[in-house]
Amino acid sequence: MAIQRTFSIIKPDATRRNLTGKINAKLEEAGLRIIAQKRIHLTQAQAGQFYAVHKERPFFGELVEFMASEPIVVQVLEGEDAIAKNREVMGATNPADAAEGTIRKEFALSIGENSIHGSDGPDTAATEIAFFFSGLELVG
Ligand code: DAT
Ligand code: MG
Q: In what residue span(s) does the Nucleoside diphosphate kinase-like domain sit (predicted)?
């Protein structure tokens, strides 16, 4: 597997509880390098655009409201097989199903307030990185 880049968000439930450092430590321990990172506060319109793929789902309104509720930390992670590796260290969407040692198992509050986002494939990784970062901000 080649070196890949993926996109990650530390979500409002985690920034609110001051968990950015603990989550970053787990990402780094998994072998991922944080090559870009910034703290931003999305508007509901921006959150809706980012999660547009879920707009028909019953939880969409709740998701958008949550993601715009408080600041988030957006990141680009780089490493061997980074997309799958990041999904593994994140754990299952629902923390009740997440494996021991994963970020969601340790920190998530619920299926909605689940502490972290990670791209689910190469195409979404590229689109999501470009949504938040310019090429100049990516320092590999
Ligand atoms: P993931 O974030 O693991 O890729 P997803 O892409 O299916 O999961 O959903 C995006 C986010 O939407 C997820 O992190 C939390 C929220 N979500 C998903 N399913 C939900 C549900 N059944 N109820 C409430 N929120 C949900
Ligand atoms: Mg997803």
A: 3-140
SS3 72: strand
| Environment of ion ligand 2 (residues, CB < 5 A) | 120
Check the annotation: does 22 bind a ligand. no
Determine the Cα angle at 18 with ends 140 and 51, to 5°.
65
- What ipTM was reported for this prediction? 0.98
Residue 53 falls inside a structural domain: no
Ligand nearest to the CA of 64: 1
Using the atom order of ligand 1, give the atom closest to the CA of residue 92. 3
Q: Is the CB of 93 under 6 A from ligand 1?
A: yes
Instruction: Count structural domains, the chain.
Output: 1
Mapped onto helix, strand or coil, the DSSP state of residue 134 is coil
pLDDT 10s digit of each residue in the chain, 140 long?
799 999 999 999 999 999 999 999 999 999 999 999 999 999 999 999 999 999 999 999 999 999 999 999 999 999 999 999 999 999 999 999 999 999 999 999 999 999 999 999 999 999 999 999 999 999 99
Q: Which domain holds residue 27?
A: 3-40+73-137
Ligand 2 centroid distance, CA of 117 (Å): 7
Q: Does this model's pTM top 0.90?
A: yes
**Contact by Cβ (8 Å): 125, 6:** yes
